[in-house]
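Final paragraph of the annual report: two paired records, presented back to back.
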Amino acid sequence: MSRLRILLDNGHGKDTPGKCSLRWADGSQLFEYEFNRDIVRRIADKLAAKGITFDIITPELTDIPLHQRANRVNHICNVNGVRNCLLISVHSNASLNHNATGWEVWTTPGKTLSDSYAELFFKRAQAAFPNWKMRSDTTDGDHDKEARFAILRKSLCPAILTENFFMDYEKDCRFIMSEEGRSQIAQMHFEAILDCIDFYEQL
């Protein structure tokens, strides 16, 4: 069994304002807290079936402050070792003009071990979603985008954040509301995690 412990963070909560899609013509609407938790649950089920050790950082439906999420991550890191943990924060995206589309993965600025894990996720997403836009920043030689997101910056271990399509663009939103879309997204994350475990075992 791999010593790499997978930490799953489902972003936002039921009470987080504004984290939802537009209401579409048929009355349907996506709430990001529900999507994030459903994807994390599906990933967790696959990891459990494979015997891979994991933790769901935010089992609550309500929003947990970012510093508290990071504290939970760091407690596990202190017990298991920083390099023996990988945090994956799962989200759905949104844009100001409601017409952006595609998939992307984020790390903190600069070259860290997180970049290597993010690159494995990007490659799996590229293979899983060949007909979708893969959003990236290759200026530093890899595909992850970089920002000082608190959950990434405050976590001690390697950490990535996935933005799984745009909930405010109808084509994307229909996909991530569908059973097919959610199944594909969860499977892509699971396969990327297996790649990360293989990579970790070679460090």
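The closing record of the year follows.
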Amino acid sequence: MCCFFSSITFANENKDNLFVFVGQKISVTEAANQDSCLEKVGTRCVKITLDGKLDAKYRVIESVHGVSPGPVINFYLYNHYGRPDFANYKYALIFVSKNEENFVSEKYRNYEVYRTRDGKWATCGENVVSSAKLLEIQFQPAIYHDISHYSDQYVEELFPASIWRRDGDKIFCRQGVYVDELYRIEIEEYLKLRSSSDIK
């Protein structure tokens, strides 16, 4: 039984359908949502659409798992809460699964990522799951915010000192998680849990 559109989730036996990559956004646009029927009444198709559908196009910068379909990938992105923050990221770690015809993003499992001084990719600590081990990372260029108009209390709440380093009117991200560790966590914890769940 299904009451909403969902992304494709993979089970252990078809994990090869999963492609994980660092991508650079080319475009993310709204798409017509005509993917499924809840049920048929005679010749009519009854639909209940609670998820929005986006058509995403990304340049593949680095493959983390699976084989890239080419230098550019198109996939569908479903979201229950309007246009996701993910659609605004310039670079992201993206999890997609292949069905019969298309790639579809794993729902809510994408991370904003940045270049690091050692030539890798990582996310700032504020964006990661709680089980991830944060490491000291030098981002290049540096990730920072202008905090000149913020109160000290607001800065302490928004930018914990365990992750951010303050320097005058700017605050710099100094801890994060590399993409290979994010991938490991997703495979071992979240996606594995979802693939064995009755709730998709």
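Residues 179-195 form the longest helix (17 residues). This concludes the annual technical report; the extension proposal builds directly on these records.
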